[in-house]
Amino acid sequence: MTSKTSRSRAQRRSTRLRTPGRQRGVVMAITLIALALLLIGAAAMLRTVDTSGILAGNLAFRRDLANRSEGAAAVARAALVSGALSTEAARTANLPQANYSATKLDAPGGVPTVLVDDSAYAAAGYAATSADKITLRWVIDRQCASGTAAFSTAACESVSSSGDAGGSSWLRKPNGASRPVYRISIRVTGPRDTEAYFQSTFAD
After folding, report:
1. Would you say 182 and 73 are in contact if contact means Cβ atoms under 8 Å apart?
2. Is 70 helix (H, G, I), strand (E, B) or coil?
3. pLDDT for the residue numbered 181
4. Residue 196's beta-bridge partner residues?
């Protein structure tokens, strides 16, 4: 009786001694799995932050280029309103000094080819301005067919000014004079090979 009791006590002791070892192994496995999940979550979070930073930086570059393009647009409009292209006689011929073409430029994708190709832009005699690692290139082309000198509604795209609004409503009133349309295309090149294109039309 005594021997059986001592054996059962010895077995219970051995079981109690073995149990903590098994528990420590399970805890270690769970801890390793939790650490792996935390590392994966941290890596995903860092990647999201990096992507957000890149997108924010690109948007900031884009906004800056858009602001810089306003300077080129102002120069082009000033040339048409009060500068070298302010008279109709000056607009009948190409004027490279003012980045001006009297006829419509080839633009397969909507942007003049001469503006996309740097070598063609320089060969045409057009000037570019650079400041703060940002380069502005622009070109003004009158929307007239090739070979056209003087403006005509048959060969050029035009718009009509508003007609006479005075007098009696039943009277037939003359329409306003037709004016040629000028396209202003701007290319802005910034840091990290960032590029942006802007276009507007002008009628005068």
Report:
1. no
2. helix
3. 93
4. 188
Give the closest residue to 102 by CA, choosing from 180, 190, 158: 180
Spans of all domains in the chain? 2-203
Round to whole Å and give the CA distance between 72 and 25: 71
Lowest mean pLDDT among 68-72, 110-114, 116-120, 147-151: 147-151
The residues, any chain, with a CB within 8 Å of residue 161's CB and separated by 6 or more, are 176, 177, 178, 179
DSSP 8-state class, residue 105: P
**Mean pLDDT, the chain, integer:** 80
Q: How confident is the model at residue 7 (pLDDT cuts 50, 70, 90)?
A: low
CA distance 196 to 194: 7
pTM of the model: 0.67
Asked if 139 contacts 103 with a C-beta cutoff of 8 angstroms, the reply is no
